[in-house]
Batch of 2 targets.
Target 1
Amino acid sequence: MSDSFVLLNKCEVERLLSYDELIPRLESVMGKFSKRDSSEIIQPVRSVVPIQPYNGFLGVMPSYMAADGILCTKMVTFYQRAEGSSLPSTQATVLLFHPERGHITAIMDGEAITAKRTAAMSAISAKMLMPALSEVLCILGSGQQARSHYDVFTKVFKFKEVRIWSRRREMAQQFVNDLQGPVRVCSSVKEAVMGADVIVTATGASQPLLFGEWVKPGAHIAAVGACRPDWRELDDVLMRAAVVYVDSREGATAESGDIILSGAHIFAELGEVINGSFPAQREKTTVFKSLGMGIQDAVSAKLVLEKLKSEH
């Protein structure tokens, strides 16, 4: 391995990675992916290794984007922690390689990349699918993903009301205390989601906690939790009634318990909407089931490096 690689910590990645630049790059790469030109993008489904004694998993997410000269992989561990555990539920590292020579060119914190690119993808889905008049945003969860979603959604859109719910009310209150804008803490999922135009589910749930009977017709749901085939956040009623969009058909049919266990039909990939090959049915209730992809990490990491080089 070459000794001339860049090493970036979480704070540095967060500083260098801006939503203004990240969102258009993600839109571009998702459109390219959905064209299924294997000479342009190689993106296998995530490989997952169970860590059974500790209720965890190791995920490996490689990708190669030939035209952009990006060879990348992310390694992520994710766990189902006991309530009140002080241990993190996810940790991640992103590696960039020299495509021709094969050596590592950069090692960077993957948690900041994962949080920002996931939230940016949800914002892209909302831009295309949420009701034309959207005034109420609801976020279920109070962890890093909830915070990144709050950041991008309040930056890109103008909501009159933002609601938050978390299993632990003290965590939801801490979430609110750390923010600049007004947010209402709700005591139940039902209270939080009733009448909401946009709902983000960013929880560690393995059983449904969002039920279709509570969801306003025409609402948009960005579901970013439940990344295993036997985990769920959304119930059958919601999944079967909604128009379902995904980042990757292959990934969703292999990994998403929300889709697999409900038997829901996948209408389109977000990239297919970006390409104009499938419509954005914003007049209907829509779900964007997000599982995350290696190409999203790769584009984000490349942007971080570009910003770093421009500073020197």
Note: The two ends are 24 Å apart (CA to CA).
Target 2
Amino acid sequence: MGQNNYSSLHGFILLGFSDHPKLEVVLSGVVTIFYLITLMGNIAIILASLLDSHLHTPMYFFLRNLSFLDLCFTTSIVPQMLVNLWGHDKTISYVGCVIQLYVYMWLGSIECLLLAVMSYDRFTAICKPLHYLVIMNPHLCLKMIIMVWAISLANSVVLCTLTLNLHRCGNNLLDHFLCELPAMVKIACVDTTAVEMSVFALGIVIVLTPLLLILISYGYIAQAVLRMKSIAGQRKAINTCGSHLTVVFIFYGTIIYMYLQPGNSASKDQGKFLTLFYTIITPSLNPLIYTLRNKDMKDALKKLIRVDYESTKTKNWKS
């Protein structure tokens, strides 16, 4: 039998938090609650921004994409995670693990690039307000989104394929609650330098380059806001960018902090909790961040609730 055939036949075992049985019970409840919040919050944002004509702007087009991304991101992880947390069976099929690996890497890369695109949108809106609608036209917005999804897919295909081609010598124990690339690399029984260098190089392109562009965009935005003579204008600009900047800080802050941790046994559990934070909790916070700081979105959600209430009331009256 080939070196990787064992994993192909029997799948993988996700150790996750199996050494803390009581914690698993608590986590299963927490994950379920945050998953439901993620579903309801992001679906509400998508529907509200689609149904309200006032929100048919580039900013909300990108926000809809972020909400859809968060829905896909959590759904690719949570169902399998809950199955493993609820029962004694910690296995995941080989095909299921491969799909999760590719999708997780793809969607995670998209979020990095999408946040950079959203920062460029805010830069254009504040620094070039008179030309905003001309520059950020629907055709350009669509092209940017297609590029983001395509570049991220290419990144996922390259890195995940390199990782899966590593010989594992029958090792199928993943010290994580999902099929993540670093966890897959760790169980390889051959030299992984080439893969690690590829991950590092593409990590600079996919993670650090977008972060640099975001910081440059907000540098120009800060200069533009400080030059504004109107306090009301400054407040509006800060509110407009505040939500996005908060999401950027949470997402990038968690990732950077996690990967700067030393690889000792204590940091492994810490790494799992940090992964849990930015894959489960952050997507549920995004809708709250954007609605609490955004008057237009709050008004759109009120309209959506009102329409749903009136529709339910009409159905009850007819019955």
Note: The longest helix spans residues 193-227.
